[in-house]
């Protein structure tokens, strides 16, 4: 195996590719600036190390055997991976992260997040392009990863290192050391039920005594290690727990329960009469949301800097909170 590793070099794999593409040792030698005997010797080394025949000696053309075809296919894949590693190293040297993970609370606009992703991938960083890393598909070359979280799970993803940037975290009065947090804004919640729900016919503001007699729908906190957060549930109330805000909306539309919903997300349902907003005697304060990132010891990567720059825009922050609608695809 060590002998095979010694001969399976990028140069040898590239040589195989040229021979197969040109169809002869002589043509490949001319392209590579070598004599045909040198290529023949190198192919013999490969065959001896692998203990297989790579070319059919009965043909005058450089015809690959089945083993040769396999080596060529895998060799091309390996060469692409080598190039990719080299390109990622160059990107790191220019300051662009290899990967950026963003944790997004489920109440924020996925449409806006995808539009920001489009703008990010459309970047043409001068430093990266000068190193020949860029093509029309890669943008700056940083791999983006979005993950949807709920309540404390968004914060946990950041502090655990699973995410580099967290959007929609609750603004703590005393943030942890090494973490920077800025306000994103407030999102208004409304108590809503479908028109055929018993609470829809109740006149006046709903009391807790009236609400507790009906099943609530709650979105499960996605935190795995931190203490999960419970919001707007009454002690002793029956609860139907679902995994996402979209699932909670679906459950309440089907009259499987009641509860508070983000007004911007259900605005279309309210306008269409599919949900009825009810006043409640206890009016919860709209949650104050923020975005946070780890400061670390060194300079921030250029990809994270770009996203933070976008979040400095009041228009972007407002879109994340407000830009929902029937045309929005669920993330």
TrEMBL record:
Gene3D superfamilies in alphabetical order: 3.40.190.290, Winged helix-like DNA-binding domain superfamily/Winged helix DNA-binding domain
Record-linked Pfam families: HTH_1, LysR_substrate
UniProt superkingdom: Bacteria
UniProt xrefs under SUPFAM superfamilies: Periplasmic binding protein-like II (SSF53850), Winged helix' DNA-binding domain (SSF46785)
Keyword tags: DNA-binding, Transcription, Transcription regulation
One GO MF term: DNA-binding transcription factor activity
Cited PROSITE patterns: HTH_LYSR
Domain HTH lysR-type intervals: 8-65
Record PANTHER family: HTH-TYPE TRANSCRIPTIONAL REGULATOR, LYSR FAMILY TRANSCRIPTIONAL REGULATOR
Family in the record: Belongs to the LysR transcriptional regulatory family.
Protein name: LysR family transcriptional regulator
Organism, scientific name: Piscinibacter terrae
Taxonomic path: Bacteria, Pseudomonadati, Pseudomonadota, Betaproteobacteria, Burkholderiales
């Amino acid at each position: 195996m060590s002998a095979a590793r010694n001969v399976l070099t990028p140069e040898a794999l590239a040589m195989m590719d040229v021979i197969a593409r040109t169809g002869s040792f002589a043509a490949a030698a001319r392209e590579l600036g070598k004599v045909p005997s040198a290529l023949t010797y190198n192919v013999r080394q490969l065959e001896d190390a692998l203990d297989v025949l790579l070319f059919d000696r009965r043909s005058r053309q450089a015809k690959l055997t089945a083993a040769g075809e396999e080596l060529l296919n895998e060799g091309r894949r390996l060469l692409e991976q080598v190039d990719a590693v080299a390109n990622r190293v160059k990107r790191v040297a220019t300051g662009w992260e290899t990967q950026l993970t963003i944790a997004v609370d489920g109440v924020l606009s996925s449409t806006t997040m995808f539009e920001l992703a489009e703008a990010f991938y459309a970047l043409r960083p001068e430093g990266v392009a000068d190193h020949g890393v860029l093509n029309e598909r890669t943008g700056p070359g940083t791999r983006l990863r979005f993950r949807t979280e709920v309540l404390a799970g968004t914060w946990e993803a950041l502090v655990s290192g699973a995410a580099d940037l967290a959007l929609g975290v609750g603004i703590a009065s005393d943030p942890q050391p090494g973490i920077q947090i800025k306000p994103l804004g407030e999102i208004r919640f409304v108590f809503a039920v479908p028109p055929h729900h018993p609470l829809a016919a109740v006149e006046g503001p709903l009391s807790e005594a009236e609400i507790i007699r009906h099943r609530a729908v709650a979105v499960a906190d996605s935190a795995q290690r931190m203490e999960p957060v419970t919001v707007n549930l009454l002690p002793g109330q029956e609860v139907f727990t679902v995994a996402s805000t979209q699932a909670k909306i679906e459950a309440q539309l089907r009259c499987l329960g009641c509860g508070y919903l983000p007004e911007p997300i259900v605005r279309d349902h309210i306008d269409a009469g599919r949900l009825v907003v009810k006043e409640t005697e206890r009016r919860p304060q709209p949650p104050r949301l923020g975005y946070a990132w780890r400061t670390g010891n060194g300079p921030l990567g250029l990809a994270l800097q770009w996203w933070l720059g976008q979040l400095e825009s009041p228009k972007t922050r407002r879109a994340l909170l407000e830009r929902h609608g029937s045309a929005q695809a669920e993330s």
